[in-house]
Design brief:
By secondary structure, this protein is mainly α. Among the domains are: 63 residues; 73 residues, no CATH class; 81 residues, no CATH class. The protein is 50% helix and 3% strand. The strands form two sheets. It has a two-stranded antiparallel sheet with strand order 1-2. Strands 3-4 form a two-stranded antiparallel ribbon. A hairpin with a 2-residue loop joins strand 1 and strand 2. Helix 8 packs antiparallel against helix 9 and helix 13 runs antiparallel to helix 14.
């Protein structure tokens, strides 16, 4: 078997076993010279040394498994091929046939394995130089696909029930942002295309904008102004408009301050006369409504202080 160096594990175990032997020798010397009066010390040293030696030998047997290095089944020391070559069977006699040359004894597997690459390298011609090929650039990584937005509870919008929300979801509309970006007509057509009934969607985009901005109180106030899918403002905040006049205006399609600010005097007069409210004078109503829409409540108060029944007293 060829010589080999000890592995790191074997060296460590050898040092450990040597340490145990040194402790045993030291204990024996101390006991023989009677330097230490207490025999328990030397006895303890002997026990410790023996324990270290036994542990080291046991670890060596378990970790190194030395018997595998002397397994004669792996590399036979004697084979018939090494002693003599096998006899060559005589070929049948033929005319003008030369006898086959004797077969040489086979070399050991290690020699054959070593010699074969040398022979092949000597016989084979050198390959022609291959022109350098520019490396193919790695493909660019695919663009990351944006994760779909988390669905929102669209039933928070006044006028959208469970069936309407399911129809919008089937059409790919699942968030407040999507609803806010569409027109009422687009939303109604989308719901109908999924076989569901669509109510009035006039206020859905505005509600969705409030919901998308997490403006809960604003959304609650907005929903409180919606009746049957239509936005309704409290028009009685306008000086000169009472409950009956408000009802007459709503029947004429004037439901919000925005509607009132854009209404003409002719439209207002027609709505009031149709309800039998001929005595009311709506001259300042659009002006008051416009101040509310603009949020100029200070100017609104100053104007209303000068009014009596919606008519300027100065």
């Amino acid at each position: 078997m060829p010589d080999r160096k000890l592995s790191t594990t074997e060296q460590t175990l050898a040092y450990l076993i040597g340490l145990g032997i040194l402790i045993i020798i030291a204990a024996a010397i101390l006991a023989g010279l009677d330097i230490i009066e207490n025999d328990d010390v030397t006895t303890s040293m002997l026990i410790v040394g023996l324990a270290i030696v036994i542990l080291g030998i046991g670890a060596w047997l378990i970790l190194v498994r030395p018997w595998e290095q002397f397994d004669e089944q792996k590399e036979p020391q004697y084979t018939p091929e090494k002693k003599a070559a096998k006899p060559v069977a005589e070929a049948p006699a033929k005319a003008d046939v030369k006898p086959a040359p004797a077969i040489k004894a086979e070399a050991p597997p290690e020699a054959v394995a070593t010699a074969k690459p040398k022979a092949e390298s000597a016989a084979a011609p050198k390959p022609a130089p291959v022109p350098a090929v520019a490396p193919t650039p790695a493909p660019a990584p695919a663009a990351e696909v944006e994760a779909p937005a988390k669905p929102d509870d669209l039933t928070m919008i006044e006028g959208i029930g469970a069936k309407t929300a399911a129809a919008l979801k089937a059409a790919g509309i699942t968030t407040f942002q999507q609803v806010a970006s569409m027109t009422p007509d687009e939303l109604a057509k989308t719901v109908k295309s999924q076989g569901a009934r669509a109510g009035k969607a006039d206020t859905w985009p505005e509600q969705a904008r409030e919901a998308a901005g997490a403006k809960v109180s604003a959304l609650t106030d907005l929903k409180g102004r919606i009746t049957s899918g239509t936005m309704h403002d409290d028009l009685t905040q306008i000086e000169g408009i009472g409950p009956k006049a408000q009802q007459a205006l709503r029947q004429a399609g004037i439901n919000t301050f925005q509607d009132l600010a854009a209404a003409t005097q002719e439209m207002l007069r027609t709505a009031l006369d149709g309800a039998g409210l001929n005595l009311l004078k709506p001259g300042t109503w659009p002006q008051q409504a416009n101040l509310i829409v603009r949020g100029d409540l200070t100017a609104l108060k100053e104007l209303q202080d000068r009014l009596q029944g919606g008519v300027e007293t100065d």
